[in-house]
Amino acid sequence: MERKYPHLCSPITIGRVTFRNRMFSAPMGGTDISNDGCIGPKSTAFYELRAKGGAAAVTVSECMVHPETDGSHAYHLDESILNSLACATYTADAIRRHGAMPSLELSHSGMYAGTYMTDKTRQHEMHQWGPSDTTRPDGVPVKALSQEQIADIVKAYGHMAGLAKRAGFEMLMIHGGHGWLINQFLSPYFNHRTDEYGGSLENRCRFAIEVLQSVRAAVGPGFPIEFRMSGSELFEGGYDLAEGCRIAEQLEPYIDLLHVSAGTYQRGFGDTHPSMFKPHGCNVYLAAEIKKHVKVPVATIGGLNDPAQMEEILASGQADVIYMARALLADPFLPNKVMANRDGEIVHCLRCFTCMAERAATSTRRCTVNPLIGREMEGDEIQPAPVKKKVLVAGGGPGGLYAAWTAARRGHQVILCEKEGELGGILKSEQALPFKHEMYELAGTYAALARKAGVEIRLNTPVTPELAAAEAPDALIIAVGSAPLVPPIPGLDGDNVVIVNNYYKEKDKITDDVVVFGGGLAGCECAIHLGQEGKHVHLVEMRDTLAPDANVRHRPLLLKEIEKYVTVHTGCKGLEVRPDGILCETKDGAQVLVPGTSVICALGQRSRTADVEALRDAAPFVRVIGDAAKVSTITNAVYWGYHAALDI
């Protein structure tokens, strides 16, 4: 067959191993890590799903090589630990059985040992080791590794590599980026040693080279060794791209694949993991430049999820391999869809950071758009229902659409009714914000998948008790969503006020001086967009903090954008909306006018309780999901919709 994306779909040989395409699954940490560092069965299933979805390589992350100096709660390989080698073997086999090559990331956190612990107090109780004596920004002291310790760590890398090969891994990634130990030695910011491991570039590369030599001695010739590096540390005092090229030249003789990432995890999370506020592929230039200086294949990464863009990166010679992480959570079957010319069915990553926020907060995994993530052991294939039923879905937002799609795949007759003329629910409002346009497009993807599965979609059709009685469904899923909260504040119904949900329809009404009333997630993101358009934006919030409803990964990046574009007024209660702004009362009782000739009302949402109550008895099986049940997140709407359909 003729491939729509021939470069993405072409195989590549690295060392003596041939990979089936150029789409690789980047390192992502699992969840059920045992107390002694074994890979749990949930994590095995987590990695296996990306192999089943068509990725050419699946990298298991991270195996810490030296517990004596790095007590991070991550994977370990240790013959003295019961089941350690066995768990790794089962994981490698689970990946390999689907035609993907299992790879293991070998790592050492250095001065950031314990980073993956949910309980950060335990991290701070640990002794931290690095290239030099220092104190971390959070006040934790760091002690320089001795040459004897360095030699022991180098030996440990080789030992772990040998165990990984024995377990069935067919490639190894040596993590030398993102602020971990090898990067700390490479970096002039972290490395102030005066012995042969510090000072000149050659000396700063010595530790990395010794590690790579140790690994090669353990795995033998032809076994692919990949080195992951930050092309530039992207902060003052760290190495830049020019020095990144020189580092690559130093390491090239010892590796088979150079994986170019960006930034330093602890000082630039939004660089290493590009947020929705950055263009897709914003870090590709680093790989493209470094590729000019080396002959080994080069891999790139960073917010990539569009096959057309990835194909162009390969076709133009900017890289040889594309790595994806979040994109393969959103749609693990993205590579299979690309290989089969079904790219129109790809569910795209929103870059919302739900996946990483859940891991930091609860040590689990979730994905806003994919309810399988973190629960792969429950099965990734929709099983046909033993009895086919008639299912009515009220509401065409993300939860309703996902529920309808799932129910149709089970073989049910599904009718989805949407009271408005367009699907998407609250997602329709995101089309006006360029950095959230993928969230708006999500509804279109879900709708296309639902229609393909056989769902009958009726627009401009509210589900009433009368309609439900006429259809007589066996099951009713109520996904009628929420309505904007508009309290009885004088002037809030004025002509100069636009409800944030309606901004996409009324954006021409917004003047150059605007007040966003409400500092939750929706208000903050709208304020950023208005500021990016060049408007003068004031943000009024009664609470002392902004966006408490944003997740722990997205919120810091959101607040940085707020600082760039918005004048913030926290602790201000809105009393009256006027033609020239909002009259507010501060915490000390003073009244101030926050100026603006337009007002965006973003004071939250309220469940459509009356609509729900009217339909409670409209079918034998009734389930309420999404904002109709509780104003929450797209994540919950999708999860509840998926499981409601499985229960029918």
Automatic annotation (TrEMBL):
SUPFAM superfamilies (UniProt xref): FAD/NAD(P)-binding domain (SSF51905), FMN-linked oxidoreductases (SSF51395)
A Pfam family reported for this protein in Swiss-Prot or TrEMBL: Oxidored_FMN
Residue span(s) of domain NADH:flavin oxidoreductase/NADH oxidase N-terminal: 8-343
FAD/NAD(P)-binding domain segment(s): 390-613
Gene3D superfamilies (alphabetical): Aldolase class I, FAD/NAD(P)-binding domain, NAD(P)-binding Rossmann-like Domain
Record InterPro entries: Aldolase_TIM, FAD/NAD-bd_sf, FAD/NAD-binding_dom, NADH:flavin_oxidoreductase, OxRdtase_FMN_N
Record carries keyword Chaperone: no
GO molecular function, one term: metal ion binding
Entry cofactors: FMN; [4Fe-4S] cluster
Alphabetically ordered keywords of this record: Flavoprotein, FMN, Iron, Iron-sulfur, Metal-binding, Oxidoreductase
Family membership: In the N-terminal section; belongs to the NADH:flavin oxidoreductase/NADH oxidase family.
Protein's name according to its UniProt entry: FAD-dependent oxidoreductase
Annotated organism of origin: Candidatus Gemmiger excrementavium
